[in-house]
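User: Predict the full complex structure for these chains.
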Amino acid sequence: MPDNISFTIDGQEVTGKPGQTVLQAAMDSGLYIPYLCYFPKMKPYGACRACVVQTEMGERKSIVASCTTPIAPGLVVDSKTEQVTDLRRGIIELLMAEHPHGCLTCHRVELCGPQDICQRHVSVTDRCTICPKNERCELKDTVRSVELDLRTPLNYHRRNLPIHTDDPFYDRDYNLCIVCARCVRVCEEVRFDNAITLTNRSGVALVGTSRGESLLESGCEFCGACIDVCPTGALVERDYKWEKAARQVTTICTNCPVGCQMVAEVNRFNKVVRFIGDLAGESNNGQACWKGKFAYDYPNHKSRLKYPYVREGGILKRVTWEQALDRIAAGFGDRDGSKVAVIASPRGSNEDNYVAQKFARSVLKTDNVDTALNLTPRVASTLQKRFGSAGSTNPIWDLEGSKCVMVVSGNPTEEQNVLAVPLKKAARAGAHVIVIDPRETELTRYASDWIRPKPGTEHILLVGMARTIIDEALEHKEYVSSRCSGIDELKRSLWKFDLSAVSRVTGVEDTIIREVARNFAKKAPASILFGVDTVPVDLHGALTDAILNLSLITGNVGVKSGGVFPLYAGANTLGSLDAGCSPMAERGTDLTVEPGLNGATPPPMRDGVADLFAGMRSGEIEAAIVMADGMNPGAGPLGDAASALRSLDFLVVSAVFDDEVTAAADVVLPASTYTEQTGTLTNLERRVQLIRTAWTPRNEERSGWQTFASLARRMEAEGFDFQDSGGVFEELASVVPGYAGLSHDRLEAGGIQTPCPSSDSPGAAMLHAEEPDDDAGRLAIVPLPFIGAAAPSSDLVLAPGRVLSQPDKPVQVTRRGDMNYLHRVEVVKVHEEDAKAMSLMEGDAVEALDDHGSRLAVGVASLGSPQPGLISVTTLFAEVALGMHDADSPDPSPRIPGLPLQPVRLVKAADLAAYAVSSD
Amino acid sequence: MATTKAELGDSIRERVRCALKQQPQPTVTVLSSLLAVQDAIHYLPDEAIEETAGFCKASVNEVWSVASFYTNFRFTPPGAHVIEVCWGPSCHLAGAQGVLAAVQQELNLFREGETDDRRATLRYNTCLGACALAPVISIDHHLKGRITAGDAKDLAGGLLVD
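Assistant: Here is the predicted structure of the two-chain assembly.
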C-alpha cells in the first residue's frame, strides 16, 4: 500500500489516502467544504461547483472544484479566502434563482414552528410549506453555510413544471430540482438501471425519463436510491411525505436475507415514517430496494392486533395474557411430541428463534420446529456439512470484484435485491455473467451466457460442466492438491456424465456446455449465486453438491471475490438455523436438548417446514404454535398454508394482523414488530446485525422470545427467566459456537460476521481463507451420482419471467384514478414441437391455464422456447411494484409472488381483442 | 384492407432497424445511430428511441438524453419542404427580420415548426455560411441569397402549392 498523503486545508494538517479527492479527505477528517453534487460512494461529478477551493502547489495557484481534485503531498488548500467565498456565493445565488427559497429569506423562518400555517409573507410558489423536505433539506443547510447575503431579495423564476404523482411510491416535483444529477448518477453508476436521465440541455436541462414516460415503462426498479441522495424536496417518498422525524433509529430491514442496515426515521407520534439505506451498513453500502424502502411501515397500521384473544364458541374474545397462556397450556396439555409443531417467524430474531426452539425441545419435547420460510433445508444442510456454515463463503460486496459470476436458478434482483447490486457492478466492469435458468430474469440482460436447461436438470448441467473442466484439465490443480480431498472419487463418478448424455437430458447442446465450462474455469475469481427456484425439492442437495464441487475444483472457495452465495428466502433463515430453530439441527449438540423420551429412540426428524405442513394436512400434527409475522399464508411454496393450519386441532397464532391464519386460530397473541424490540438477525453473508427498539410496545404486544418464555414459565419449565433480549443472546452465544464472541453491546458498533469465537475476534469475513493444517481440515469434493431428471411429464411447464423493461414490446400506460397502470399483450414463447402438436401458429392468441383453470398468462404465441414442454412469458417488474403499491394487506411484502414454475395447459384464446393494446 | 396504425408502426420499426444496421463506420454509438435514423427517415419516432436502445444495449432513457440534447434531432415528421431562414449577424443587419416576418406570415406560423397541412417546415438558422449573399434563406437545402421580403413571401407561398 502506498503511504498516506499529508497536505493542508485552511492551515490544518490533513492526511488522506492516495486516490482521494480534496473533498473526500476533508470529509474524512471532519472538515466541512460546502458541496451539492458530490455524494459519498459515488464518482465525483464536478457539476455544481459549490465546493470550489483555492489550491496552491509550489508556484501554481488555482481555483478548482475540490470534489474532482486529487490530493497530493504538500498541496495547500484554502477554502475560506475571500475570493473563494465570493465565487461560491455567486454560484449558489445562480442555483437559487430557480429554486424557491422562502425557507431561507422569509423573516419568519425563526419564528414559525414546523407545523405552523404560513403567515403569507412570501408568495405562494416560494413558501417553505410547499416543500415536503422543509426543515430536513440538505440544500438549505448548504446555502446557509456559505452565508449568502439574504437581505437583498434574490431572484426566483418558477418553472411551472407539472408535479408527477401518478407512479407508485414516489412524488417528483422538478420545480424544486437543482439538476445536481445525483439521482441520475446513482441510478446509472450504482444501480445500473438508467431509469432516469438528464433531458434537454443548457437552461432547460432537467431530470426526467425518455419522452417523459411513466416510471413504469422506463425500467425503474423502485429502489428509492434516487430519493435517498436527493438534496432537495424534488424527489420524496409519497407516504408520510410531510412528516418530520423526531429521531432516527438504526435498524435492519427484515424483508430478505441481505439484511440491509437502514436508518428508520420516527416521528413524534412514534410512527416510523421513512426508511433510508444507511451508508455505514456493511451489507448494503447505503442501498435498499423497493421492499426495504416502501414496505417498512406495517408497524404503524391501525389494524394491528393489540391484545390476546381466545376463541370461545367460534368467536375470538379478548382476554388477558394470563388467561391466554392458561388456555395454551391446557390446549397442549400432554400431547405427544410428535404431534405438535412450532413454526417460527421468518422475520424472527435469533433470540426469538432460539427461545422458540428451546421451548419446543424442552417443553413440548419435539423437534418439530422451523421458520416458515426455511424452504430449502437441503441446501442449508449440505452447505453446513461441507463448508461448516450454511451462509455464503464470502461477503456480499466481494462480488463487485468477481471476474465471473454464475447465477443458478435464482432471481436475486427481486428476492435478494441488494445482493445483485455488486453483481451488476461486476458485470459492468466486464465480468463474465453466466445465468442458468429457464426463466428470463433481470440478470439475463447482463448475462454473457444464458443457459436454459430443462427444469430439474440444472444439477446435471453443472456436473457436465465439471466433467468438461476435468476433461480439459482446466481445474485449479495446485488449489485442489493443497486444500481439497476426494478429487479422484469425483473423477471416477464423472465417467457417467458423458457430455452427449448430459446434453440429451438437459436439452442444452454439448458445445455450449463446454464453452460455458471453459468460461467459468478460466475467469478467476469466480463466484456462484444459487437458488433452487426451478429445482424440485428432492434435487436441492444434488444441486448444492454440484455447485460446491464446481467452485472447489476451480479453486474459488476461500478466495477474495470468489465463493458461493446461497439465495435463501427468509430474512433470518441462516440465524434461525444457527440458533437451532430447525428440525434438522444435529442431535446431541448443546442446542438439541434431548427430548424426554425415556430412553426410547426419538422419531425421525421431519424434513423442514414443508414437511411440517404436510404433517398438518395428513393429521399427524394436531397442534401448533405459529408466529405469523412475515409469513405468506396464501398459496405459496408451502402449498395452501392457511388450509393446513385450519385442519389442526389446536392452533396458537402470534400475529401482527388479523388474517387467514388468525381466522383459524384458537388463541391469538399480539406480536410486536421489528420496531418494538431489540434483537439480532444473521444475514446470508453470516453477518449478525442488531435491530434496535424504536418505541416500546403501545399495548400488550410481545416479541417471539417473550411469548415463548412466558408460556414456558406458565408451563413450569425451567431456564426461561430471561431479563431482556440481551440476556437471551448471552445464552445463545454460550451455546452456538460461532457466536461465542458476540454480544449486543459489541454489535452496537456494527454487524460482525460469524464464526466469531471470542470477544477479541473480528469475525470471519471469508470462510476457508487459510490453507488447512492437516488432512482433516481439507474441503471434501464429493462424488456425484447421475440422479434426478424427474420422469418427463407430459404437461407443459410455464416459466414466468420478469424484467425491468422491454423497450421493443409495445406497452400502454392507462390511467385509473390518479395512478398509472400498465396494459400489455404478452408474448407467450412456445417450442416448435409443442406448437406443431397443437397446430399453433405464430401470432395466435393463447391462454395458459393452471390445474384449477385460472389464467396465468395470456398473449400472442411466438415460437422460440428453448425446450420442448417449456412455455415462457416475460412480464414487467412494474406490475409487481404496482401490486405492492395497491395491496389491501397492511403488510404486503411477504405476499409478493415469486416466479415459480407451474404446470399449465395451453389453450387457444377465442378473442385477443379484449386484451389488445389499442394503437391510439 | 386498410393499413392499421400498428402495421404502419411495424414498417417504421423495420426502416429504423435497417438504418441502424447499415451504418458504415466502424464505431457505432448512440449518437451515430440516431443520426443514421434521422438521415433515413428524417425524424426520430418513438420506435427509433426504442430500437436504438436495444441496438446499443443502452436504456431508452440514455438514448433520450442524447437525442434531446441536440437541437438538430426532431421527433415529429418534417413537412414536405423545409425552409430555413438565417438570422445570423450578417443577415440580421441585411434585413433578415423582415424576411422572417414575411415567411411566417405566408406560412401562418408564429415560431419554428410545420404548417397545419404539413407541406412546409420553418426553421431558424444561426448561419447558413453565405454571409456575402445576406440575407439568405434555404429551401430544401438550396441556398437563395440577396433575398427580399417579397421574394421570400413568394418562395414560401410556392411551397404550399405544388
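Chain A touches chain B at residues 193-201, 209-211, 213, 218-219, 805, 807-808, 810, 919-920 (CB under 8 Å).
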